[in-house]
Design goal:
The structure holds two protein chains of two kinds. Chain A is of the alpha/beta class. Helices cover 45% and strands 20% of the residues of chain A. Chain A has a six-stranded parallel beta sheet, sandwiched between helices. In chain A, helix 2 links the parallel strand 1 and strand 2. Chain A is globular and about 45 Å long. Chain B is of the alpha/beta class. Helices cover 39% and strands 18% of the residues of chain B. Chain B contains eight helices and eight strands; from the N terminus they run αβαβαβααβββαβαβα. In chain B, strand 5 and strand 6 form a beta hairpin. In chain B, helix 1 crosses helix 2. Chain B is globular and about 50 Å long. Chain B starts with 7 loop residues before the first helix and ends in a 6-residue tail after the last helix. Classes of the chains: A alpha/beta, B alpha/beta. At the A-B interface, strand 1, strand 2, helix 3 and helix 5 of A face helix 3, helix 5 and helix 8 of B.
Amino acid sequence: MEDWPDAVFGVLNDAGVRQVCYVPDNGHRRLIERCHADNAMLTTRLTGEEEGVAALTGAWLGGDKGVLLMQSSGVGKCINMMGIVQECRVPLLMLVTMRGQWGEFNPWQVPMGRATAPALEAAGVLVHEVDDAARVAETVHAAARLAFDAYRPVAVLIGQRVVGFKDWTK
Amino acid sequence: MSGVPLDRREVVARILARRGETLVVTGLGSTTWDAAAAGDHPNNFYLWGGMGGAAMVGLGLANAQPGRRVLTITGDGEMLMGLAGLATIGVSGPSNLAIVVIDNERYGETGMQETHTAHGVDLAAVAAGAGFAAAATLRTMEEVDSWVPRLLGEPGPLFAAVKVGTGPAPMALPLRDGAAIRARFRAAVLGDRAQE
Protein backbone atom coordinates (compact mmCIF):
# COMPACT_ATOMS: atom_id res chain seq x y z
CA MET A 1 0.00 0.00 0.00
CA GLU A 2 1.08 3.55 -0.78
CA ASP A 3 2.20 5.44 2.29
CA TRP A 4 -0.21 8.16 3.43
CA PRO A 5 2.21 11.06 2.78
CA ASP A 6 2.52 10.00 -0.87
CA ALA A 7 -1.23 9.69 -1.18
CA VAL A 8 -1.68 13.14 0.38
CA PHE A 9 0.86 14.58 -2.03
CA GLY A 10 -1.23 13.22 -4.90
CA VAL A 11 -4.39 14.76 -3.43
CA LEU A 12 -2.71 18.17 -3.08
CA ASN A 13 -1.47 17.97 -6.65
CA ASP A 14 -4.92 17.06 -7.95
CA ALA A 15 -6.45 19.92 -5.95
CA GLY A 16 -4.15 22.38 -7.72
CA VAL A 17 -2.16 23.36 -4.64
CA ARG A 18 0.84 25.46 -5.67
CA GLN A 19 2.19 27.21 -2.56
CA VAL A 20 3.30 24.96 0.29
CA CYS A 21 4.15 26.78 3.53
CA TYR A 22 5.59 24.75 6.35
CA VAL A 23 7.33 24.57 9.67
CA PRO A 24 9.33 21.34 9.69
CA ASP A 25 7.84 18.38 11.49
CA ASN A 26 8.88 14.75 11.55
CA GLY A 27 5.34 13.65 10.73
CA HIS A 28 5.35 15.78 7.58
CA ARG A 29 8.93 14.94 6.58
CA ARG A 30 8.10 12.83 3.53
CA LEU A 31 5.33 15.13 2.32
CA ILE A 32 7.65 18.15 2.58
CA GLU A 33 10.32 16.25 0.62
CA ARG A 34 7.81 15.40 -2.11
CA CYS A 35 6.68 19.04 -2.34
CA HIS A 36 10.27 20.28 -2.53
CA ALA A 37 11.00 17.83 -5.34
CA ASP A 38 8.01 19.00 -7.41
CA ASN A 39 8.93 21.91 -9.67
CA ALA A 40 5.30 22.99 -9.97
CA MET A 41 5.07 23.57 -6.22
CA LEU A 42 6.57 26.59 -4.51
CA THR A 43 7.71 25.75 -0.99
CA THR A 44 8.15 28.40 1.69
CA ARG A 45 9.93 27.53 4.91
CA LEU A 46 8.46 29.57 7.76
CA THR A 47 9.98 30.58 11.07
CA GLY A 48 6.53 30.39 12.68
CA GLU A 49 3.17 28.95 11.71
CA GLU A 50 1.27 32.26 11.85
CA GLU A 51 3.40 33.48 8.94
CA GLY A 52 1.79 30.79 6.81
CA VAL A 53 -1.76 32.01 7.42
CA ALA A 54 -0.77 35.47 6.18
CA ALA A 55 1.31 34.14 3.27
CA LEU A 56 -1.50 31.91 2.04
CA THR A 57 -3.89 34.87 2.22
CA GLY A 58 -1.52 36.67 -0.15
CA ALA A 59 -1.28 33.56 -2.30
CA TRP A 60 -5.07 33.40 -2.68
CA LEU A 61 -5.22 37.13 -3.47
CA GLY A 62 -2.82 36.39 -6.32
CA GLY A 63 -4.71 33.32 -7.55
CA ASP A 64 -2.70 30.52 -5.92
CA LYS A 65 -4.09 27.73 -3.78
CA GLY A 66 -1.89 26.72 -0.89
CA VAL A 67 -1.47 24.43 2.06
CA LEU A 68 0.01 25.00 5.52
CA LEU A 69 1.90 22.04 7.01
CA MET A 70 2.58 22.16 10.73
CA GLN A 71 2.61 20.42 14.07
CA SER A 72 -0.15 20.94 16.63
CA SER A 73 2.21 23.01 18.81
CA GLY A 74 2.01 25.78 16.21
CA VAL A 75 -1.77 26.08 16.15
CA GLY A 76 -1.88 28.43 19.12
CA LYS A 77 0.36 30.89 17.31
CA CYS A 78 -2.05 31.12 14.38
CA ILE A 79 -5.22 32.12 16.19
CA ASN A 80 -5.21 35.90 15.71
CA MET A 81 -4.28 35.54 12.05
CA MET A 82 -7.46 33.51 11.54
CA GLY A 83 -9.25 36.85 11.73
CA ILE A 84 -7.90 37.64 8.26
CA VAL A 85 -9.14 34.50 6.55
CA GLN A 86 -12.48 34.59 8.36
CA GLU A 87 -13.21 38.24 7.63
CA CYS A 88 -12.00 38.07 4.03
CA ARG A 89 -13.42 34.57 3.38
CA VAL A 90 -10.08 33.26 2.16
CA PRO A 91 -9.73 29.47 1.76
CA LEU A 92 -7.15 27.96 4.10
CA LEU A 93 -6.10 24.31 4.14
CA MET A 94 -4.01 23.24 7.14
CA LEU A 95 -2.56 19.76 7.67
CA VAL A 96 -1.63 19.42 11.33
CA THR A 97 0.31 16.49 12.75
CA MET A 98 -0.64 15.89 16.36
CA ARG A 99 1.51 15.78 19.45
CA GLY A 100 0.46 15.30 23.03
CA GLN A 101 -1.93 12.42 22.53
CA TRP A 102 -1.42 8.74 21.51
CA GLY A 103 1.70 7.47 23.28
CA GLU A 104 3.20 10.91 23.93
CA PHE A 105 6.30 10.80 26.13
CA ASN A 106 6.86 14.56 26.54
CA PRO A 107 4.45 16.01 29.10
CA TRP A 108 5.08 19.54 27.80
CA GLN A 109 3.34 18.60 24.54
CA VAL A 110 0.11 17.56 26.21
CA PRO A 111 -1.49 20.96 26.96
CA MET A 112 -1.35 22.30 23.39
CA GLY A 113 -2.25 18.89 22.01
CA ARG A 114 -5.44 18.92 24.07
CA ALA A 115 -6.17 22.55 23.11
CA THR A 116 -5.58 22.13 19.37
CA ALA A 117 -9.06 21.22 18.14
CA PRO A 118 -10.99 23.47 20.57
CA ALA A 119 -8.72 26.43 19.80
CA LEU A 120 -9.14 26.00 16.05
CA GLU A 121 -12.91 25.64 16.40
CA ALA A 122 -13.11 28.71 18.64
CA ALA A 123 -11.32 30.65 15.90
CA GLY A 124 -13.84 29.48 13.32
CA VAL A 125 -11.76 26.80 11.63
CA LEU A 126 -13.53 23.62 10.49
CA VAL A 127 -11.74 20.60 11.95
CA HIS A 128 -11.46 17.09 10.50
CA GLU A 129 -9.69 14.60 12.76
CA VAL A 130 -8.24 11.41 11.30
CA ASP A 131 -6.71 8.55 13.28
CA ASP A 132 -6.40 5.91 10.56
CA ALA A 133 -3.57 6.06 8.01
CA ALA A 134 -5.83 4.56 5.36
CA ARG A 135 -8.24 7.49 5.70
CA VAL A 136 -5.80 10.42 5.69
CA ALA A 137 -5.84 11.01 1.94
CA GLU A 138 -9.63 10.94 1.59
CA THR A 139 -9.92 13.29 4.55
CA VAL A 140 -7.48 15.73 2.96
CA HIS A 141 -9.41 15.45 -0.30
CA ALA A 142 -12.66 16.37 1.46
CA ALA A 143 -10.96 19.17 3.39
CA ALA A 144 -9.47 20.63 0.20
CA ARG A 145 -12.91 20.73 -1.40
CA LEU A 146 -14.39 22.41 1.65
CA ALA A 147 -11.56 24.93 1.76
CA PHE A 148 -11.24 25.86 -1.90
CA ASP A 149 -14.79 25.31 -3.16
CA ALA A 150 -16.66 26.58 -0.08
CA TYR A 151 -14.07 29.25 0.80
CA ARG A 152 -13.46 28.17 4.38
CA PRO A 153 -10.53 27.60 6.75
CA VAL A 154 -10.20 23.85 7.29
CA ALA A 155 -7.71 21.92 9.41
CA VAL A 156 -7.02 18.20 9.12
CA LEU A 157 -5.63 16.90 12.41
CA ILE A 158 -3.54 13.83 11.68
CA GLY A 159 -3.49 11.81 14.89
CA GLN A 160 -0.35 10.69 16.66
CA ARG A 161 -1.58 7.16 16.14
CA VAL A 162 -1.00 7.71 12.41
CA VAL A 163 2.24 9.64 12.70
CA GLY A 164 3.76 7.32 15.28
CA PHE A 165 5.45 8.26 18.51
CA LYS A 166 9.10 8.57 19.32
CA ASP A 167 10.87 5.85 21.23
CA TRP A 168 12.70 8.15 23.64
CA THR A 169 14.76 5.32 25.12
CA LYS A 170 16.88 5.23 21.96
CA MET B 1 18.56 64.14 12.46
CA SER B 2 18.00 67.79 11.61
CA GLY B 3 15.15 69.77 10.11
CA VAL B 4 11.43 69.10 10.05
CA PRO B 5 10.53 65.40 10.28
CA LEU B 6 8.86 63.82 7.29
CA ASP B 7 5.06 63.71 7.15
CA ARG B 8 3.81 60.12 6.79
CA ARG B 9 0.97 61.09 4.46
CA GLU B 10 3.33 62.95 2.14
CA VAL B 11 5.74 60.01 2.06
CA VAL B 12 3.05 57.45 1.23
CA ALA B 13 1.46 59.74 -1.35
CA ARG B 14 4.87 60.31 -2.94
CA ILE B 15 5.50 56.57 -3.25
CA LEU B 16 2.03 55.69 -4.51
CA ALA B 17 1.95 58.53 -7.06
CA ARG B 18 4.35 56.43 -9.16
CA ARG B 19 2.82 53.02 -8.45
CA GLY B 20 1.53 52.23 -11.94
CA GLU B 21 0.07 48.70 -11.78
CA THR B 22 1.83 47.82 -8.51
CA LEU B 23 -0.14 45.62 -6.11
CA VAL B 24 -0.17 47.20 -2.65
CA VAL B 25 -0.72 45.55 0.75
CA THR B 26 -1.10 47.81 3.78
CA GLY B 27 -0.70 46.87 7.43
CA LEU B 28 -3.15 47.18 10.29
CA GLY B 29 -3.41 50.75 11.47
CA SER B 30 -2.05 53.98 10.19
CA THR B 31 -0.56 52.75 6.91
CA THR B 32 -4.00 51.54 5.81
CA TRP B 33 -5.31 55.05 6.51
CA ASP B 34 -2.27 56.56 4.75
CA ALA B 35 -2.95 54.55 1.59
CA ALA B 36 -6.64 55.49 1.70
CA ALA B 37 -5.69 59.17 2.01
CA ALA B 38 -3.42 58.83 -1.03
CA GLY B 39 -6.40 57.61 -3.07
CA ASP B 40 -8.37 54.37 -3.12
CA HIS B 41 -7.31 51.81 -5.74
CA PRO B 42 -8.63 48.32 -6.61
CA ASN B 43 -5.02 47.05 -6.47
CA ASN B 44 -4.91 47.93 -2.76
CA PHE B 45 -5.43 45.21 -0.15
CA TYR B 46 -6.10 46.91 3.16
CA LEU B 47 -5.44 44.88 6.31
CA TRP B 48 -7.62 45.90 9.26
CA GLY B 49 -6.45 42.98 11.39
CA GLY B 50 -3.85 40.24 11.61
CA MET B 51 -1.20 42.48 13.12
CA GLY B 52 2.25 41.26 12.09
CA GLY B 53 1.02 39.71 8.84
CA ALA B 54 1.40 42.47 6.25
CA ALA B 55 4.87 41.54 5.00
CA MET B 56 3.89 37.86 4.74
CA VAL B 57 0.70 38.65 2.81
CA GLY B 58 3.03 40.50 0.44
CA LEU B 59 5.26 37.44 0.16
CA GLY B 60 2.44 35.05 -0.72
CA LEU B 61 1.09 37.53 -3.25
CA ALA B 62 4.52 38.15 -4.81
CA ASN B 63 5.08 34.41 -5.16
CA ALA B 64 1.65 33.98 -6.78
CA GLN B 65 2.18 36.89 -9.20
CA PRO B 66 5.87 36.84 -10.16
CA GLY B 67 5.22 39.09 -13.14
CA ARG B 68 3.73 41.88 -11.01
CA ARG B 69 5.35 44.30 -8.58
CA VAL B 70 4.16 43.90 -4.98
CA LEU B 71 4.65 46.58 -2.35
CA THR B 72 3.82 46.13 1.32
CA ILE B 73 3.50 49.39 3.25
CA THR B 74 3.25 48.94 6.99
CA GLY B 75 4.14 50.53 10.32
CA ASP B 76 7.03 49.87 12.67
CA GLY B 77 4.84 48.30 15.37
CA GLU B 78 3.17 46.01 12.83
CA MET B 79 6.54 45.00 11.34
CA LEU B 80 8.03 44.33 14.77
CA MET B 81 5.17 41.95 15.57
CA GLY B 82 6.05 39.89 12.50
CA LEU B 83 9.78 40.53 12.53
CA ALA B 84 10.74 36.91 11.92
CA GLY B 85 8.85 37.10 8.65
CA LEU B 86 11.80 39.09 7.29
CA ALA B 87 13.90 35.94 7.65
CA THR B 88 11.28 33.96 5.73
CA ILE B 89 11.15 36.60 2.98
CA GLY B 90 14.95 36.78 2.79
CA VAL B 91 15.12 33.02 2.25
CA SER B 92 12.18 32.89 -0.16
CA GLY B 93 13.78 35.78 -2.04
CA PRO B 94 11.03 37.09 -4.33
CA SER B 95 12.57 39.59 -6.76
CA ASN B 96 9.25 41.44 -7.19
CA LEU B 97 8.59 42.30 -3.53
CA ALA B 98 9.40 45.53 -1.69
CA ILE B 99 8.55 46.40 1.90
CA VAL B 100 8.28 49.95 3.17
CA VAL B 101 7.96 50.61 6.88
CA ILE B 102 6.57 54.01 7.81
CA ASP B 103 8.48 54.33 11.07
CA ASN B 104 7.22 56.89 13.57
CA GLU B 105 8.70 54.87 16.45
CA ARG B 106 5.23 54.72 18.00
CA TYR B 107 2.17 52.48 18.34
CA GLY B 108 -0.09 55.05 16.73
CA GLU B 109 -3.43 53.31 17.23
CA THR B 110 -3.05 52.55 20.93
CA GLY B 111 -1.90 55.82 22.44
CA MET B 112 1.45 56.60 20.79
CA GLN B 113 3.55 54.45 23.09
CA GLU B 114 7.14 54.07 21.92
CA THR B 115 8.10 51.00 19.89
CA HIS B 116 11.45 49.25 19.90
CA THR B 117 12.65 51.40 16.99
CA ALA B 118 12.56 54.37 19.39
CA HIS B 119 15.12 52.46 21.43
CA GLY B 120 17.67 51.59 18.80
CA VAL B 121 16.27 48.60 16.94
CA ASP B 122 17.31 49.00 13.29
CA LEU B 123 14.74 47.35 11.02
CA ALA B 124 16.81 47.89 7.87
CA ALA B 125 19.75 46.12 9.50
CA VAL B 126 17.45 43.18 10.32
CA ALA B 127 16.26 43.03 6.70
CA ALA B 128 19.85 43.23 5.43
CA GLY B 129 20.85 40.47 7.84
CA ALA B 130 17.94 38.37 6.58
CA GLY B 131 19.29 38.51 3.04
CA PHE B 132 17.25 41.25 1.37
CA ALA B 133 18.84 42.48 -1.88
CA ALA B 134 18.96 46.02 -0.48
CA ALA B 135 17.77 47.71 2.70
CA ALA B 136 18.03 51.27 3.98
CA THR B 137 16.68 53.76 6.48
CA LEU B 138 15.45 56.96 4.78
CA ARG B 139 15.22 60.28 6.61
CA THR B 140 14.69 62.95 3.92
CA MET B 141 12.29 63.35 1.01
CA GLU B 142 15.30 63.39 -1.32
CA GLU B 143 16.22 59.92 -0.10
CA VAL B 144 12.61 58.80 -0.50
CA ASP B 145 12.51 60.16 -4.05
CA SER B 146 15.70 58.36 -4.98
CA TRP B 147 14.40 55.08 -3.53
CA VAL B 148 10.92 55.09 -5.08
CA PRO B 149 12.06 53.85 -8.52
CA ARG B 150 14.14 51.16 -6.83
CA LEU B 151 11.22 50.01 -4.69
CA LEU B 152 8.95 49.86 -7.73
CA GLY B 153 11.37 48.27 -10.16
CA GLU B 154 14.68 46.95 -8.89
CA PRO B 155 15.15 43.21 -8.30
CA GLY B 156 14.30 42.50 -4.65
CA PRO B 157 13.38 41.73 -2.07
CA LEU B 158 13.90 45.34 -1.05
CA PHE B 159 13.34 47.03 2.28
CA ALA B 160 13.10 50.69 3.29
CA ALA B 161 12.28 52.12 6.69
CA VAL B 162 11.20 55.74 6.37
CA LYS B 163 11.57 57.76 9.56
CA VAL B 164 8.55 60.07 9.94
CA GLY B 165 7.27 62.47 12.54
CA THR B 166 4.55 61.81 15.09
CA GLY B 167 2.15 64.56 14.08
CA PRO B 168 -1.52 63.62 13.84
CA ALA B 169 -3.00 62.92 10.41
CA PRO B 170 -6.66 63.45 9.51
CA MET B 171 -8.75 60.27 9.57
CA ALA B 172 -9.08 58.56 6.19
CA LEU B 173 -10.80 55.19 6.19
CA PRO B 174 -10.98 52.87 3.18
CA LEU B 175 -13.34 49.92 2.62
CA ARG B 176 -13.73 47.98 5.86
CA ASP B 177 -15.58 44.82 4.77
CA GLY B 178 -12.81 42.22 4.36
CA ALA B 179 -14.75 40.03 1.93
CA ALA B 180 -15.44 43.06 -0.26
CA ILE B 181 -11.79 44.15 -0.20
CA ARG B 182 -10.68 40.61 -1.09
CA ALA B 183 -13.24 40.25 -3.90
CA ARG B 184 -12.38 43.61 -5.44
CA PHE B 185 -8.65 42.93 -5.27
CA ARG B 186 -8.91 39.47 -6.83
CA ALA B 187 -11.14 40.78 -9.61
CA ALA B 188 -8.58 43.51 -10.35
CA VAL B 189 -5.64 41.08 -10.37
CA LEU B 190 -7.18 37.95 -11.84
CA GLY B 191 -10.07 39.14 -13.99
CA ASP B 192 -12.34 36.21 -14.88
CA ARG B 193 -10.09 33.81 -12.95
CA ALA B 194 -11.28 35.47 -9.72
CA GLN B 195 -14.51 33.48 -10.05
CA GLU B 196 -12.76 30.10 -9.85
